[in-house]
Amino acid sequence: MGEKVVAGGFDLSDRQRYRQKLQQCLEGLARLLKEKRFDRPRNLMGLEIELNLAGTDGQPRMMNDAVLDRIASRDFQTELGMFNLEVNIAPHRLAGHVLDQLAEELRTGLAYAHRKATELDAGIVMIGILPTLTRTDLVPANLSDVDRYALLNDQIVAARGEDFTLDIDGVERLHCTATSIAPEAACTSVQLHLQVTPARFADVWNAAQAVAAVQIAVGANSPFLFGRELWRESRPPLFTQATDTRPPELQAQGVRPRTWFGERWISSAYELFEENLRYFPALLPICDEEDPLRVLDHGGVPRLQELVLHNGTVYRWNRPVYGIADGTPHLRVENRVLPAGPTVTDVVANAALYYGLVRALAEEPRPIWTRMPFEAAADNFDSACRHGIDAELHWPRPGRGGAMTRVPAVKLVRDELLPLAAAGLDAWNVEPADRDHYLGIIEGRCRRRTNGASWQADTFHRTTEAGLDRDSALAAVTRRYGELMHLGEPVHTWPAGPAV
């Protein structure tokens, strides 16, 4: 009698208390929304990029701690794998020359980090999945030496109760198992943040979900994993499988995966946080001392730490974020769709397309989510991940009838979405010259039907045809990619050909 029952390293009493605190946090969020306590819109956007470390031989380097010591900047921090870094750009007001400002800050920061990394025979490679990664690279011993990563791995492994199965059938098929979440570290992304009011949140989130497939189609950059050519954007299936806490019997029962596109359009941010609590058990049931309802009763702003922590373990491609700045709560949509790279110019072009489209679509008189079934958006996302720049997408026909049709992504972007994105950037008061420059890069990709993924695949095949074996070809592709990435010209202008 009196013994604690332990599950996955935490007492069941801890989990019960955490569940109660989550309910209190959810009630606190509802009160904040009802009392209209949130920050007024300031048109703030933010950006994070996950990076890889690789040597001049194209192989990954497991040394992020040493590289971070050399960089010595709070803008750079660890990520899940020892071959990963992350760079964070301070929030910017989305107006004027913000796109060129972002590009200049990124070029300066990444160039400095690359110089420091080269002092240790490493270098920065901005790419969705490093082509030279092998199964022996993605093992628990190569997780970053950070307590929260070890704890998260332990909890996901305990919840899963068996090895993870990676099974991705693309151009080639990959089938293997993993004993940890380490394969997730292969996925390096760009995360775009947009601060919104509660009243606008649902419209922006719905718009972001609708265009997620478009982002992938033009921005895919992850065709290889463990020496296999898979989907043009292999991060989503890899991320889903590498963090899947569901054993096969729960998958068969329709239990939702923690990496999740979603299943419906929404009408408020509250619905997403409530879904997270309803569908997903706590992985890290760590309770804060704050009583959020008491804080509200005394006129304060609660941190809602349990809600924030739990939200961070549900990997939506468009994630709701609650935060506090200068003592005032705010909401953000965190867009997690895009892979890293290929160049700074390409990253900023992808951001311009996203911010322009979500502004324009969120303000349409007949919003896209009233004309397109959510299932079509989810199917589009899958198709874009599989086929990249060659994907065909479901989209409503222009005009009053608006029946759904299937259209090549490049035609949809050039004929309909680029003008919308331009109008959206105008609504943000972005400088017209910047607007035209960065959206012109998206148009160039569509015209040449080239993005990072298609360039990698084409260069790989040309290289093997020139006589290199598979591993040597992938290393050659990685080296050539790194060279061109640092030169900085957008990927659709890169020369193809053997990277011998």
Give a topology summary.
Layout: E1 6-7, E2 10-11, H1 12-34, E3 44-53, H2 64-71, E4 76-78, E5 84-93, H3 98-118, E6 124-125, H4 147-160, E7 164-169, E8 173-178, E9 190-196, H5 198-219, E10 224-225, E11 228-229, H6 235-242, H7 248-252, E12 259-260, H8 269-279, H9 292-297, H10 305-311, E13 315-316, E14 318-325, E15 328-335, H11 344-362, H12 374-387, E16 392-396, E17 404-408, H13 409-427, H14 432-448, H15 452-465, H16 470-487
Parallel strand pairs: 12-13
Antiparallel strand pairs: 1-2, 3-5, 3-6, 3-9, 4-5, 7-8, 9-15, 10-11, 14-15, 16-17
Summarize the structure.
With about 500 residues, this protein is an alpha+beta fold.
Give the fraction of residues assigned to helices: 40-55%
Number of helices: 16
Binned strand content = 15-25%
Distance between the termini: 69 Å
Mean pLDDT level: 94
Biggest sheet, open or closed, and with what strands and sense? Answer: 7 strands, antiparallel
Please tell me how large the radius of gyration is.
Answer: 22 Å
Rough outline: globular
Characterization of the model:
With 500 residues, the chain is an alpha+beta fold. The chain contains 16 helices and 17 strands. Helix 1 (12-34) crosses helix 10 and helix 5 (198-219) packs across helix 11. The relative contact order is 0.15.
Tags for this model:
single chain, 500 residues, alpha+beta, disordered N terminus, two-stranded antiparallel sheet
